[in-house]
Design a protein that fits this description.
By secondary structure, the chain is an alpha/beta fold. The chain contains 30 helices and 14 strands. Helix 8 packs antiparallel against helix 9, helix 21 runs antiparallel to helix 22 and helix 25 runs parallel beside helix 27.
Length: 743
């Protein structure tokens, strides 16, 4: 992206713009654009392109076109654009995680997890097939063991370490018993109700007494489920076919699979036909018709009455049921835990490294905190997940005040910060984004719109320093837009070395926008000083600056200050020197003394009036100057001529109305404003021109009271506005002449 050819038509406020940005020599441009000229529209256009949209003309609905062509003749694509808006409170970096990702660490972690994931999927699928698709395996298992906040694999490992085979199970066969019916929430509510619980305890007591009397089954040790599993296993492995027999503790001999099944059923039937037990069952049965879930549960326990004795400890039953489920799927369980054990130590080591893997992140925070003062610190809450699992980073803000600190969320933080601090928070996210783009290593066009707006000088220079570092990095191409002339000049000096080809200014014309080479980048007054003998416009414009020098070096009471002030206001009465009498030679002497030079300013026109020179320059500017130009000396000189013309009109009008100049002679300072007040109060003055005179009073003082620090207002002011003032005053002056009012 060494070169960008830009053509825009009807893109928001830009009627037309055609230009080329060449980044071969320098990787940045700075553009000075006064408010309302193009800055926001230019930024919005690139923001639309970044978002994959098309720029628009929003007022008149005109057809828009926008072509941004790179040096390879290809159009710029969204991923090659990064737009920094002036301010966006809700903005947060989308690529912070890129500052934390360690690809090698992540690949190793993923590799270790791959086999675990396969075994885990096999395990979950086996249990899903065993219990049915409606059972949330992980959630249910973790809930059963009261480990909701634990890690699933860690829980399985813990169960394995406790020796699954030694853990008490439920004795239930979940190929015959529906898990979702047994452990339904409404069933749990019913079971845990005190009245139901009392009936269940009575049933359980009776059942346990009967179990203790059986010769074959043993409560808590050898139940019907265990017996059936052993019988099935012996039968499947040909035990009885080989004519082996089972010898029970009472001396009875079992010779076949069928005999053992009959024995189990007989013992079960003997227990369940007990009259007391049947009575308790009937009492429980009556309560199980409130809803569909309980009715389904009643069907279940009708088929498995032995379940009732375990319902007294419903949570224990759930835990024991999962022991049964795991035992029933022991092969998949062991395979998963074995894989986990092999990888666990390596995974833990990687996780520990991930918790410390924040070098790039720390560098970004350091970039920010070393440059900007803000009352908060920022950190990442879920660093391990970001590093290893590409999770979205959760930023934590810690607010500090007078030695106290408190964690606070970003939305509340925004409400507590000052305007500058909020901008700093926004800028922090921009820095995150830029540093993340560096990690990606892509050549990106960065559009920065008034990035230093509302910052104090310290933070403003901090931004410039950061921009300079990134321009020198040479990965990005920058187009920096600003309406702050001081920021514009500083960027031009520190980042671009006063390269006028890369320091541009906006000219807004009726046909569209033009970009012209920058001006006034260095000390403009040195340039003016060199042209005093050859350029009358600069000579006139230098008068207020020289007066500023006198003001700083001497005082407002010295003769040179009073002399120069007489050239900025029309003095016609009193004992002081009259404005129209001051000659070129007299001005030359003052300039050479104050500016310590020896300029031949008055060559062959020593007696010429400075007043007449100012008006001649003003007339020339009006006739020849470009309305869209950013010509500082023209605006200063033109403003001087406008004000002298306006004061002459007011002085003649006041004198005519009052009959003499006594009130005018009382004016000692702020002459234009005081003349305007007098003019308004006079009955016979022309009130129709008051709007024009008020504009003169408002617009010209700042233009004329020039100093070396603040001439942004002069550049921003429209030359067309000044010309409109001048033409209106000339018309009034002509009317006075026609009426023989002006002499």
């Amino acid at each position: 992206m060494d070169k960008l050819s830009v053509h825009m038509e009807n893109c928001y406020g830009i009627k037309s713009l055609t230009t080329t940005f060449n980044f071969n020599k320098k990787k940045a441009y700075v553009i000075y654009a006064s408010n309302g000229s193009m800055k926001t529209s230019f930024t919005k256009t690139f923001k639309q392109l970044k978002e994959g949209g098309n720029p628009k003309e929003e007022i008149f609905g005109r057809e828009s076109s926008c072509n941004i062509i790179k040096s390879n003749e290809q159009s710029i694509v969204p991923e090659e654009i990064f737009v920094i808006e002036s301010y966006n409170e809700s903005y947060s970096s989308k690529n912070v995680s890129n500052l934390l990702v360690n690809k090698l660490l992540q690949e190793k972690y993923i590799s270790l997890l791959k086999e675990i994931t396969i075994k885990k999927d096999n395990f979950i699928n086996a249990l899903q097939e065993y219990l049915g698709p409606k059972v949330a395996i992980e959630n249910q298992l973790m809930y059963a063991f009261n480990k909701q906040d634990s890690d699933f694999l860690k829980l399985l490992n813990e169960i394995h370490n406790n020796d699954l085979n030694k853990l008490e199970d439920s004795g239930l066969d979940f190929t015959q018993i529906d898990y979702t019916t047994l452990f339904d929430d409404k069933v749990a509510t019913f079971v845990k109700d005190p009245k139901s619980l009392e009936l269940l305890k009575e049933y359980s007591t009776e059942y346990n007494n009967l179990m203790d009397k059986t010769t074959f089954l043993k409560k808590g040790t050898f139940n019907q489920y265990n017996a059936k599993n052993i019988n099935d296993s012996l039968n499947d492995n040909g035990f009885f076919t080989a004519e082996h027999h089972l010898l029970l503790r009472d001396g009875k001999r079992i010779k076949s699979y069928e005999e053992l099944i009959d024995l189990i059923q007989t013992e079960k039937a003997e227990i369940l036909k007990d009259p007391k037990l049947l009575k308790r069952f009937e009492q429980i049965d009556k309560k199980l018709s409130a809803n569909v879930q309980l009715r389904n549960f009643r069907i279940l326990i009708e088929n498995e009455p032995s379940l009732i004795s375990q319902l007294v400890d419903f949570d224990g039953l759930l835990r024991n049921a999962w022991v049964t489920i795991l035992k029933s799927n022991i092969e998949h369980f062991n395979a998963l835990v074995s894989e986990y054990k092999v990888s666990a130590s390596q995974i833990n080591e990687i996780i520990q490294i991930a918790a410390k893997e924040n070098e790039k992140w720390r560098q970004v925070v350091k970039i920010f905190t070393n440059r900007f003062y803000v009352p908060f610190h920022v950190s990442i809450k879920n660093q391990e997940e970001v590093v290893l699992k590409n999770s979205v980073p959760t930023l934590v803000f810690e607010y500090h005040e007078d030695g106290e600190k408190v964690e606070i969320d970003r939305s509340k933080l925004n409400s507590l910060l000052s305007g500058g601090e909020r901008r700093a928070l926004y800028l922090m996210n921009i820095i995150f984004e830029i540093e993340a783009l560096k990690v990606e290593g892509k050549n990106v066009l960065v559009i920065a719109d008034d990035i230093a707006e509302s910052f104090d000088y310290k933070n403003k220079y901090a931004i410039i320093e950061y921009l300079q570092e990134n321009v020198e990095h040479r990965l990005f191409n920058f187009i920096i837009l600003t309406h702050n002339f001081d920021f514009y000049r500083t960027v031009s000096s520190r980042i671009l070395g006063y390269d006028r080809d890369h320091c541009l200014m906006v000219l807004k014309k009726s046909s569209g926008i033009e970009l012209t080479n920058g001006r006034y980048l260095k000390n403009i007054f040195k340039s003016w000083k060199d042209q005093l003998e050859t350029n009358d416009t600069i000579l006139v414009a230098s008068i207020p600056f020289i007066r500023n020098i006198v003001e700083y070096v001497e005082s407002e009471d010295c003769e040179n200050y009073k002399f120069l002030t007489t050239l900025l206001h029309l003095v016609e009465f009193g004992s002081a020197r009259k404005t129209k009498e001051i000659t070129m030679k007299e001005l030359e002497l003052v300039i050479n003394k104050v500016w310590i030079t020896s300029k031949d300013i008055s060559h062959q026109r020593e007696s010429k009036s400075i007043y007449s020179l100012i008006l001649e320059v003003a007339e020339k500017i009006n006739n020849e100057s470009d309305d869209t130009g950013i010509n500082l000396e023209e605006k200063v000189a033109f403003s001087m001529g406008i004000r002298l013309l306006a004061e002459e009109i007011m002085i003649k009008g006041i004198t005519l109305d009052l009959g003499d100049a006594s009130e005018i002679e009382k004016i000692k300072s702020n002459q234009t404003g005081r003349l305007l007040s007098l003019y308004k109060s006079c009955i016979g003055t022309n009130k129709d021109i008051l709007p024009v005179l008020e504009q003169v009073s408002l617009m010209t003082p700042e233009n004329i009271h020039l100093n070396s620090f603040m001439y942004e207002p002069l550049i921003d002011i429209s030359m067309k506005s000044l010309k409109d003032l001048y033409v209106s005053l000339k018309s009034v002056a002509s009317e006075y002449e026609r009426l023989h009012v002006l002499v």
